[in-house]
Design goal:
The protein is largely without helices or strands and 71 residues long. The chain is built from one helix and two strands, in the order E-E-H. The protein has a two-stranded antiparallel sheet with strand order 1-2.
Length: 71
């Protein structure tokens, strides 16, 4: 598999380029279509790729009661 960034020829199945560490394209588990490194859905069959990061389980900010000073 050829890296799109540096044109290095990598072994089949590699996830990252051996030369520049750029993410390499993957294949869809459902149809075998080529996926870009950031694809969330396959462009061929619209199947979820599973490459998206999961949603955070904790809130981004604490509730105001946790950081509001008590007077």
């Amino acid at each position: 598999m050829k890296c799109t960034r540096c044109q290095h020829e990598n072994r089949a199945g590699a996830k990252f380029c051996e030369e520049c560490a750029a993410p390499l394209a993957a294949a869809c588990r459902h149809c075998g279509g080529q996926l870009s490194p950031t694809a969330k859905f396959c462009p061929e069959c619209a199947h979820p790729t599973g490459l998206a990061s999961p949603a955070p389980t904790t809130p981004r900010f604490a509730s105001p009661e946790n950081y509001t000073p008590k007077h």
